What we know:
Elements: E1 4-7, H1 9-15, H2 18-33, E2 43-47, E3 51-60, E4 63-71, E5 85-91, E6 97-102, H3 103-122, E7 130-133, H4 137-148, E8 154-157, H5 161-171, E9 174-175, H6 178-181, E10 186-189, E11 208-211, H7 224-228, E12 231-234, H8 237-243, H9 247-251, E13 260-262, H10 263-267, E14 281-284, H11 289-304, E15 311-313
Parallel strand pairs: 1-6, 7-8, 7-10, 8-9, 10-11, 11-14, 12-13, 12-14
Antiparallel strand pairs: 1-15, 2-3, 3-4, 4-5, 5-6
Bound molecules: nicotinamide-adenine-dinucleotide (NAD).
The site of nicotinamide-adenine-dinucleotide has 31 residues, from helix 3 and helix 4.
Amino acid sequence: MPDVAVLDYDAVLAAVSPREAIDRTRDAFLRHRRDEWLMPAKVYLESAPHGDFRAMPALGGGLAILKWISSFPSNPARDLSTVMGILLVSDAETSEPIAMLDARSVTALRTGAVAPVAARALARADAATVGIVGCGLHGAWTARCLATDGYGPGVCCDPRPEAAAALANELGWSVGTREEALAADVVCCITPGAEIVVDTGDLRPGQHYNMLGADGPGKAEATIGAVAACTLFCDEWAQASHGGELTGAVEEGLVTRDRVTDLGAVLAGEAPGRADTGAVTLFDSTGLAIQDLAIAAAAVEAWREGRVQAQTVRL
Ligand SMILES: NC(=O)c1ccc[n+]([C@@H]2O[C@H](COP(=O)([O-])OP(=O)(O)OC[C@H]3O[C@@H](n4cnc5c(N)ncnc54)[C@H](O)[C@@H]3O)[C@@H](O)[C@H]2O)c1
């Protein structure tokens, strides 16, 4: 058995820049759309009342991955991350284990990276300003990736003033209220999904919403009325309709499959994005294993090319 590379949080972030994460994430959606990359359904394992674990496999580009990741909303109170886990990478041809990656950094990069991918496809062509509602780990990477792709300036909103200030200072953006953040061209909600932050009255013609926080059963950041009032897009219908921002509106019968377009279809030119400049578009991101594969592949390439150092273990 060959040695297995172990890339920690810093190694993954040193290996994959936000620019590369954005480009690879976009490519992943296209490859999955063309059935070149495979992704069985995500498995949820409840660990009530603490949170849940998710097992997320994907295969493509000569690699097979399994991400074993958590979402434990009460963890910050224990001074622990909400999201933690490990991502295993194997050779898709021989099945040999290749690498183990810190899953927190991979998740942060790919979750942030999908925000500009969706915004470029769905927001108005002249959209610039950003509102970030929830400035924790994933909110910060969402903001960094949007800034990398040319969006900004932005308003950072968080009940923890220090989190909003740190992100705003880093990007040269400003701290603001929920209302100020929701006035932006591109609004990204990335809170724990325990309380509503967007209602119907908040929607303004021409806006684009990336809803990133509700990535499991029981979570929501918008009222079902607000969701139903938008032109809807998702990363994957199966996940979005059962454990995403769309779930409540689907369960109430307000939203059906024919009203929701897959982001991959828009990126591939198979479906239209926004109908006109006045539409309010909403992208429900639940987080896909193909996005993780995209980042893992970039990290493994960087390690193989000697651009990043890794520890190794022999199994
Ligand atoms: N869609 C995806 O692909 C994806 C990926 C990873 C995580 N997530 C989800 O994103 C959410 C956030 O994860 P995280 O790791 O960034 O958590 P985190 O705890 O690091 O950050 C959450 C932030 O939201 C803030 N917040 C709470 N209530 C708020 C409110 N009403 N208004 C504004 N801000 C508020 C908190 O103060 C905190 O700073 C979780 O629900 C997680 O499961 C989604």
